[in-house]
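The freezer alarm interrupted the setup, so I double-checked each line after restarting. Inputs confirmed:
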Amino acid sequence: MNLKLVTRIIAVLACVLALMLLFPLIVALLYREHAEMIALLQVIIPTALAGVMLLYATRNVQRTLSNHDGFLVVSLAWITMAAIGAVPFMTSGAIPSYTDAFFETMSGFSTTGASILDDIEVLPRSMLFWRSLTHWLGGMGIIVLAVAIFPLLGFKGLQLVRAEAPGPSVDKLTPKIAKTAKILWLIYVGLSLLETILLLLAGLTLFDALTHTFGTMATGGFSTRNESIAAFDSPAVEAIITVFMLLAGTNFVLHFSLLTGRLRRIYRDTEFKVYLGIFASATIVTTLVLAQTTYSGIGESLRYASFQVASILTTTGYVTADYTLWPTLAMTTLFILMFVGGCAGSTGGGIKVVRLTTLFKQGMNEMKYLLHPRGVFTPQMNRVPLRKTMVLGVTAFFFLYLLLLLLTTLVVSLSGDSLLTAFSTALATLGNIGPGFDAIGPTGNYAGYPTGIKWFLSIIMMIGRLEIFTVLILFTPRFWRR
Amino acid sequence: MMKVIVLGGGAVGSEIAQQLIASDIDVVVIERDPEVARILSNRLDCAVINAMGNSTDVLRKAGTADADVFVAVTGSDEVNMVACGLVASEFDVPRKIARIRNISYSETILTARKFMGIDLIINPEIEAAYELLKSIEHGALSDIIVFAHSPVQIRNLPVPRGSQVIGKPLKDAFPFISEPLLIAAIYRGNDYVIPSGNTVIQEEDILYIAGKTMDLENLFKSFGKPRTRLNKVVIVGGGEFGVLIAEHLLRISGDATEAKEQNILRLVRGGPERKNLVIVESDNKVCKELSRRFPDVLVLNADISEDELFYEENLINADLLLAVTDNQELNIVTALYARSLGIKRSAVLVTNTKYGAICSRLEIDAVTSIKQSVINAVLRNLKRSTARSVHSLFEGRIEILELKVDQSSSVTGKPLHALHFPKDTLILAISRGQEHTIPDGNMVLQPGDMIVVIGRSEHADVIQSIFCGQL
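Predicted 3D structure, all chains:
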């Protein structure tokens, strides 16, 4: 194990983090929040110093990173980031308990959007900004960012990107991973800029527009308002956010195809079609149910239904209505969507559409085999045969996901909450969604859980964001065997 | 005299050589294997050089410098291409022909642009597949010969045992058919007869009948072979040949027939009818590849001779079974078994041309021979010819030519019965503008007429000079 190189990479990330903490510092300057400025500087300076020193100390390190080390680096990096990122919340007094601060930060980086805050609006602006920025950094992946900005760091980033990127496989847009990472981030930044501008046009302040763009593009869900998006009560804002949630939940490779004019690639993409199909059908069902019960008229029902469906499907977790008061059929629809998630290569979490599609095709294929015992069939996705190794990988992922879901439910039920609370907590944290049902519904939060469960859920959120294998592999004895 | 160098003395090469020698062409065969070379030089009346073909020295020794045509037909695509490239760069041979198997049919059409100095690519498998497909297109009732410019076809019809036409002369044999049809040739025993009106039909004869599509279909119907829809097709053998057939069948049912046949049923169903294809292949790896390439086709990994397969996978309700494995005997037996189970039509691929006639007598509807296809390809492309299309029958002993009557020809202006042709020559069809007729003796030819004429191979040049003036 190349521990020196691992240290070096963590040091690089610490420097990146210190750099990023300058943004809330600017906000603190603008809003003259002196206490927060000092709290932020108290974190930035030591972090930057330690990072630079470690970089200097490890300057002559051997620069080959094994697959093995990649997993360790990514997991360590995420824990380090959350650990450092939580400090300003505590020292500024915004979130006094370190447990809560760590939970909130990990929830931010993992784009979950689960909060322990009862009253969000009392937080200083700089802290709210940092809270939302963690989303944006975690959405595309801070390691992908590091690989994109510092291609000359001297380590090959492919293993790291692979360990951090969402979805069963990384589509290389270009032969060089650094360039691919750069393109992904450019698309991410471009879409974020576009959304910010649109939200400004829709009447939001720059602060609200930026923070909510961070929450949308990362499919995170942190808002600066207690009532989430409902606070603005603006159909225009909701429409913009709905569209951008869906865009953020789409494979970024498709955005790249769109920009380079390869429309056929989009048209042929099975996952994208299934994704849109799920969104459309869930919206229709929910709209029809709501039109007959909760709201008057199809228009209003469509407004709330489409927003909520997009929010849960893409694992964002913004709310415009308390869906726990909706009729059971509408509620169940959202509940089922919690199992789906975004597309591979998007910022969305969850099981991901591509995996479900793969499993479905494999299921259909098994039936063909039963019908024709001598038959030979090759299920295809995007007109390319599904490799057996991929199908098996997806099956294993699915199983481990369910196992973790049940384990988390078991752990959470130690708190004594209802079964639905416990299960939806597991779903919402492992799937990086945020809000769930019952006690953690749109009006509730995670503040009530005991300390131990909060730490456990923090780790679960990270496991969910890093697609299970990357973290779980560290718990296998084989990983530590020499 | 014309001189041809044939590289490769395998089944294809020796067949080509034999054909050319029969037409009085100077042939030199280059063959690598000493044993094969020895047998060839004993069997064929030509020079055989035992050496590797892709060497300038060997090519020079073979007399490539003054050859008219260079034909590379070894088993290896690469050797053929390199040899043609060598000839193109070192010698001045007007025509270079290469057998390249690993190229799909659509691509061979693109060879107007010269590739490695090759003027023409022949691919026996593709030629054979094309012939079989033509037969399937017409319902797989029989073998079929179609022409480039005339709507007339030639089909073979084995005379059914105990049929009422046996023992009757041709002119009286088909009183129930009013449409003009012409018996072009009769295969009898192991020989052929170019018939006249008085030729008496015997048992076991195979009639080669020229006529228009609809008239031929009516004739087959009266012999108990109505044209049926071929919706479910089973292909036995997933090799190169089977893949070619599957590819074309899927394409045909996908778009080509869409424009042709637009009945109400199809409109109601909202789309072209998909052919229900089944491929049976014994090699597991090949099966995987097939299932990947044809996601809509049911690919079965099984040996066709296994007992229960036809029932287990419900193959007995198929409309057509194509047996196209590498094993010709297995193909024939499989096709016969399929017919006995009630599968409506069957077609087979054979390597030996002589098996063709046997198959026709054995209730196998269409027979395609790769060797025959090679002969056709060579005849069409190698001999200097004014014919628009050339086909051959009976191992190349008979040729069917499509010719345009030239102004300088002496045949115009006289009724057909007053003309003198070489023995066994028969005009099967005349096309004049949009009018197409099956001629009788009183027809008078005009310049510009397109005719289909059948005759002996050795007379092919004479026949051409009669109709087209001097070559």
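Quick read of the result. Chain A touches chain B at residues 372-378, 380, 385 (CB under 8 Å).
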